[in-house]
Amino acid sequence: MMAIIKSLASNTVFAFLVCCAILLGSLGCNDSVSSQATTENEGQENSPSSQHQGDSITSDSGNMAKIDEALANLSEDDRQEAMKQHICPVSEQLLGTMGAPQKIDVQGTSVWICCDSCKEKLLSEPDKYTAKLNK
After folding, report:
1. pLDDT tens-digit readout, 61-109
2. β-strands 109-113, 102-106: how paired?
3. Where are the domains of the chain?
4. In whole angstroms, what is the distance from residue 125 CA to residue 38 CA?
5. Which of 47, 49, 64, 129 could form an SS bridge with 38, CB 3.0 to 4.6 Å?
6. Torsion sign, CA atoms 100, 107, 53, 58
7. Residue 30 DSSP code
8. How many CA atoms lie within 13 A of 95 on its CB side?
9. Residue 99 in 3-state DSSP?
């Protein structure tokens, strides 16, 4: 009887830990932004709390107008370059969904990122993120 109880208890703990890992893994890139700040600042485009919220590669066509508008702020050459790259290598978000993307020079290569919060990560591990562009 004790063996059954111990088995059930360990399975419950394991299931709880798996759920926690999935939950934490799904939070994504949200550099030091609390959930309270996110709630307080909802609807404020380009605020730190609104960055990286739901504009991933799988976004629907509803974002296309927002992307086109953001990319229209770039020069023709930059717009073509950003469209070719398509995603931020740090957050894996579509470029243009959080305003005009930013071009950063990384070891002589132009890399486009979605927002300021990705700049530090890109520059701290340039090889890691530029490798994503070559896939």
Report:
1. 667 888 999 999 899 999 999 999 999 999 999 999 989 999 999 999 9
2. antiparallel
3. 54-135
4. 27
5. 49
6. positive
7. -
8. 24
9. strand
